[in-house]
Amino acid sequence: MRCAGLALAGALVLATGLPAPAQPADPPPPRRIVPPPYGLRVAPLDEAQRGALQQAYAVQATYVVGLAYHCGLRLGDVIVAVNGQAFDSERAFWDLLAAHAPAIRLDVQRGEARLSLPLDEAAPECAG
Hints:
It holds the Pfam family PDZ_6. By secondary structure, the chain is an alpha+beta fold. It has four helices and five strands, in the order H-E-H-E-H-E-H-E-E.
């Protein structure tokens, strides 16, 4: 009796014109985690933060791992220049990194201290 009920239910679905149930989709491919360039992600400072630092533009380190960490950069550090050159957008910041690679130095504001940190695998300060 139970089988007849299932067959009847299947016939009703077909008779109503509803689409057949979808087959399970293939599982998504595994995610490939790509580390950020230099082990670093940044976000622009807002106007009030820039004003407090007296900077026209700067970015703050929001994610620091690998090379950036081993070279001394820390979460929350504010990057104000690359190899002594100021930048006016996040895109310009990344362009300066690319232009100066591999011999990169970051001018960083950490609290009240102003630091010059390398971002270069060959720099002795970056030995991890």
